Structures are given as C-alpha cells and as structure tokens.
Amino acid sequence: MWKTKEIAIPKGFNFKLTAKSHGWYDLAPFRFDDEAGVLFYVFTDERNGKAIEAKISCKGKRLLIDLDTSLPDANPIPDLVRHILRFDDSIGEFHTMAANDENLNWAATRGAGRLLRSPTVFEDMVKTLCTTNCSWSLTRKMVENLVAALGASSSSGSRSFPAAETLAAKDEKFYREVVRAGYRSSYFVEMTEKVAAGTIDPEKWLDPEIPLEELRKEIKSIKGFGEYAVDNLMKLIGRYDGLALDSWLRAQFYGKHNRGRKCSDKTIEKKYKRYGKWKGLAIWCDMTSDWHDPS
DNA sequence: GCGTCCAGGTCTACC
DNA sequence: GGTAGACCTGGACGC
Q1: Which of residues 97-136 of A touch strand B (CB under 7 A)?
Q2: Cα–Cα distances in Å, from A52 out to A17, A36, A148, A178, A179?
C-alpha cells in the first residue's frame, strides 16, 4: 500500500536541478526517472530495520513523497527528504554573487546550487571513497555491490543503504571480493570500524559551528581521504571552500577557460577566488552549466 | 577470447 | 615540501 506525503518547497527551489545536481542520483539506493521526473530512494525504517522505498516528485509548489508502506504520521522520512534535497540550505549569498557572473548567472536565475546528498554523512563518506581513483562505472558498481549484499529489502525488492555497524562487521576479503573495492578495501574496514565504534562521528560534522580547518583535518585523517575526497565530502556537508578538483573537473576547466590547455591548480583557484567560501559551488555550477536542459 | 595498456586519487618512502 | 612508484579495477584496443 502506497501512502503519499506532501510538503511545501522553499522559495526558488528547483527539484530537477537539485536531484540531478551531481552524480549521486545515479548511485544506489538513489535512482532518477528522467521521463517521469521522479527521484527514487530506499530509506531504512529505524523502528524495525526494514527498507522503505520512496518516490519523490514535484507538483507546483508541493513536493510529493510516495512511500511503499503506511507509516505513523510522525515518521522521519519527510525530514530526511528535506535533508537530502537541502531545503534548509541558505545559498542566497551565492546566488547574489552568481547573478553578476556571465558563467554562473544561470544558477541564480534557475535556482541551482543545492547538491543532492544522502540521508547520512556516513553514506556520503562511503560513496565519496568509492569515487576515488576510478571510473564512474566502477564507482556505480562498488556502491551497487555494497547495497545489494548488505542492504535491507523493501516490499518491492529494492534495497536500502546499510548501516555503519553492518559494514563494520565485514572484513577486507568482503570488500575486495564482493564489493570489488580493490586496494580501498582496507580503508573501508578502518573507516567503518571507527564510525561503528564511535571513534569518529560523521553526523556531527553537519554542525556549522565546527571551525573549517578542524573539520578538514579530521576528515583528512581518515585513510583514503586526500584533497579531492575531503573537498567533495565537505561540499556535501555544506562547506564549499574547497574546489574538489579531480581529473574531470580539471579537464572541463581547461576546455572552458583555458583553450583546452592544461594549467596549474593555482590558476584554477585564482579564477574562483572572489567567491570565497562559495568557490567550490561556483566551480561546480560553472563546469556543469550545460548539463541541464532549459525546461 | 586473450593480453596489454591506460586512467583515476591516495598513500608511502625517499630525497 | 616535492616527487616517484605502488595500489586495483574496468574499459579500450589490438591481435
């Protein structure tokens, strides 16, 4: 039995631009149906550990959340949806700056800049580690393997993202042979054990009061998190100070702003310096301006 | 089908 | 602080 919940969207919110803001919509348990304009996600019901599939779509000024189960009115899923779509993010300052930039005014006009994220920082950590040093197809495969092997099953058979404790119970052999994580396997073991044991608490990183450098240092101390991975995770947390430069982003920059010729990372930094704490969002919106159809 | 080469980001050892 | 090499996988390519 499906049950629909409705919530009001914030002013200037663009559902499709947010859902497809970066590749996360393509990683399990997310899925996006372009034709229908529906974002799918499989949540975990904290009460019993069962999976709940949600279909999220937008109708006028309302967001519709269709759940494949009947839940009590006080269920947490609408709040989690607000979190993943970043309803409460205040990016007006970024839009004000972008409005005066010929490369970025599209973002201000159309309401881009909210980057889709997972319900937990932990899930974003795992996925970020899966993006390091490999093709996108391998990233998809690793996440898929993880969810298929350890996720809880919904009534329709789709699977949710496993909890840290579930991942921590697995050894390096599992990550190597089932997830196909290769040399990253030992990083997964170390990271998930630390989270499950409470040695690190990723959810606390959402606190905007944590000093930037302190946060950066803590994430950087985790094996497998270098410059790119730290910046990427921090963007998802809501800190856009780092550019999260990877080979794709660099190549895009060379093509758009340097006549296809390579240049140093410092030159790239210089281009977005005026955006200050928003520069990570600025380069991302600049480099993805041709991703989205005008509708 | 098989073998080889390459891209990708981070870590570690070394200078 | 900077650099080189190793790590591992999937995809592209040539045979």
Answers
A1: 131-135
A2: 24, 20, 15, 24, 23
